[in-house]
Write a structure and sequence with these properties.
By secondary structure, this protein is mainly α. It folds into two domains: 2-61, no CATH class; 65-94, no CATH class. The protein is built from two helices and no strands. The longest helix is centred in the middle third of the chain and has 36 residues, at 26-61. The radius of gyration is 33 Å and the shape is rod-shaped. Keywords: Membrane, Transmembrane, Transmembrane helix. The chain crosses the membrane at residues 31-53.
């Protein structure tokens, strides 16, 4: 970035060929690099978040990972048995 921001007397403003000029545009270079950094950060952040959402969605849509009302009733019945709940605080659901 600093090489693109060179100004006189540290650069060649006029040369025989247009490729021989080494002076830059400090304001344009600063704006360019700030825009590039923000765009790249935005893209990388979006890719990172997309991967997280993809993993969470896969876990939620997996049939074995879902808790159904049938599973909850089964758990309540097991918990209500005397060996799991000695004080028998939960109702036994038939």
């Amino acid at each position: 970035m600093t090489d693109s921001m060179l100004e006189q007397p540290f650069c060649v403003l006029f040369g025989g060929n247009s490729n021989d000029r080494t002076c830059g545009y400090p304001t344009a270079v600063t704006i360019y690099y700030v825009v590039i950094i923000f765009l790249n950060t935005h893209i990388i952040t979006n890719i990172f978040i997309a991967q997280i959402i993809d993993k969470i969605t896969f876990g939620l849509l997996n049939e074995n990972a879902m808790v159904t009302p049938k599973n909850l009733l089964h758990f309540q019945n097991l918990w209500a048995q005397q060996e799991y709940d000695p004080s028998y605080t939960y109702k036994h659901v038939p």
